[in-house]
Write a structure and sequence with these properties.
This protein is of the alpha+beta class. It has a six-stranded mixed β-sheet with strand order 2-1-6-5-4-3, covered by helices on one side. It is globular, with a radius of gyration of 13 Å. 17% of the residues are buried.
């Protein structure tokens, strides 16, 4: 299946910026895997639950750039949180299968979330 992974990745993060969980579900592969510096989730239900908690936590998400090639895409974005976390610059490396997101690897500095 030939898909425009950059466009799909952009649409996914646009829906996330609007906190539209129902739309986000449409982009995820059933056995999707999500990994970040602080946690990992496997399966659509677990990933959607994590995304719901994440969207409840941030105040805004702004896409800075997005790129895609073959079955992979990268989205660079800023997430704004209430103090003391503030702005967190982030990157999502995504792999697609059958036109759906199969893996999401998040890259960001986790230090603002360190519970001291």
């Amino acid at each position: 299946m030939n898909t425009n992974t950059a466009a799909l990745a952009y649409a996914y993060y646009s829906a996330m910026s609007k906190k539209n969980i129902a739309e986000l579900e449409n982009y995820l592969y059933p056995q999707v895997q999500l990994s970040s510096p602080v946690t990992q989730f496997t399966g659509k239900i677990a990933v959607l639950d994590a995304i719901k908690k994440f969207t409840d936590f941030f105040t805004s998400l702004t896409i800075r750039a997005h790129f895609g090639s073959g079955d992979q895409a990268v989205v660079v974005y800023d997430v704004e949180f209430a103090a003391p976390s503030g702005k967190v610059r982030s990157v999502a490396f995504m792999t697609f299968q059958d036109g759906l997101i199969a893996t999401i690897e998040l890259i960001f500095d986790a230090r603002p979330f360190d519970k001291k």
